[in-house]
Please model this.
Amino acid sequence: MSKHERDQREGSSELAVRLILIAPFKSFADCFEATFHEHNARHVSAPYEIYKYDLNTFIADGAEEIKSIDLDCDVVIARGFTAADLASRNTYIPVVEVAVEATDILDRMVEARRLFPDSKIAVVGSSNMVMGIDRISTLSGIKARAFTCEDREEIEKIVHNLARNDYGVVIGGVRTIDYARNLGMEALLLESSREAMWHAITQAKKYAYINRKERERRHSLSTVLNQTNEGIIFLNREHKIDVFNMAASRILGIQSNRALGKRIDQILPNPQFTGFLSNSKVQKDEIIELSKARLAISKSPVYILGDRIGTVITFQEESHIQHLESRVRIHQHAHGHVARHSFDDILGVSQPIRSAIRMAKQYSQVDSNVIITGQTGTGKEIFAQSIHNHSSRRDGPFVAVNCAALPESLLESELFGYVEGAFTGAAKGGKAGLFELAHRGTIFLDEISEMPPLLQGHLLRVVQEKEIRRLGHDRVIPIDVRIIAAANRDLASLVKAGQFRSDLYYRLHILHLHLPTLDERRADIPLMVEHWVRWYSREFGFHDVWVTEEARQALAAYSWPGNLRQLMGVCEQLVVLHQRDTIDAKSVHAVMEGDHFSGVNNIAPDPESIAPSDIGGLKPVLPQDKEQYEREKILSVLQLCANNRTLAARMLGVSRTTLWRHMQKLEI
Model:
């Protein structure tokens, strides 16, 4: 039978349970088979009767004959020495013996006395066959003596001794009576009764039922163990391998049939591993190199009623664990840690912003750390997200943290995580830190200049070693994270003043990106105004909010200390105050001179009339700059309108012909 067929039969209770009978002689086999069919014909409600039972019969008495039989079955049924030999093989197949009962022996003794009244009677057999002969002899009044032999080799010697001691009749098995007859002695075959056979069949069915259930359980357990990617080994009391699943075979490069039944130190002779096993305590995630692989190994003793019966060893490749952790981190935290912006979201056609975008795209092609500097509101996080989304890490997490928004104690636990019980109030089960969540992705440390000195030291270690340690834990966790930091203060000056660690500064300051202020990219203001007015109009459900050319020019004439963030706020307020209406220069002046912006902005005259001595935060627009200003303004509007000149002319408040004439003049 093939292994596939055997596995199918073990996994299905619909197939017949197979019994094998090894009979010492043909008449025994014939009687047993008749009894077996009668046993199957009766109707009982015993649990073992849920199966169909098949019987295969072999007639054999010698050891060599028995060895040639394929014992692929659920239970073996045999008698005498054959049963003892099979049981001693220590196989997983149970053996049921057809007993020789007292009544069987008594019948033979009565017949021997009747046939040979003057002869001495000897009963020869194994200890379980001839037990109680003395009592039977006393009760029956028939003198007979029992002679016990432990194996077939003793039978011939015993029979020779009986012949020398004038025993005339020998009662025993097939081989015994053959020897006796060859020596001229009378011999009677000791047979088993139908009652003994019936009892053996009942026992065989019960054992077969239990064995089948156990084989089904083992088959199910083996299937489960082989479904996991974790290597599993079970060692018995003698440190021999009883379970060696497919993952263990794959990871260690050792076939299971070579490992099963062997001592673990024969299969894996590693001193560190041997020392690990010698400790009787539970141990988790010990990193040991076995079979040229770094493995995270755990072990746990197994007890039954307080008695240790073995040890379970589980292990995984360290690289596989890191891969799974990365996938789990990405899956569980993707919704909260995703970069939503790209370079396409950055508005502007002015030379300063295009230069910044060009440099940022170059930075995105490598994994070096980046520091982004610029005033508040210049869009540092948008650039950080764009670099991430333009890089090879785009499928990994983007984790942002404001270093100035959290107190020192909380910032440390947020960045590096903690284990359960690390401090009062620590969450049950602990918590992964932001660096762990950013594995295989990017972490954005905003306002890093505000990070406390102690945490600067911890961050330096993370940057150098590429690993973190949770608070309250002694285990280090390898990480693969790109760091993009942002600061609105001059870090170099802070280093000189001793307020920022120089070693950390030089570790982070590999690539530097400085973002221009809104004043430095004033030509982009009309474009951004159009964009944000349109966006807020749609967000609030308004339509046809129109910004006049004078209003755009007025907004372009203001200083913007809050940069993009301030401009967005002004656009939102203008939309709310002028629903379904036109935003003109008067509307702009009213908002900018209101209480909300008092002291923040100073209105300036028309850009053409600004002189160098004028104040208000604007860079002076000199006559020679006018053409560049007009050119960038037209380019920004064309970009916003996807080069639709009719729409661009409408947004600029001029005719299509006038727009065309200006484009010719400015060589656009």
In short: The longest strand covers residues 293-304.
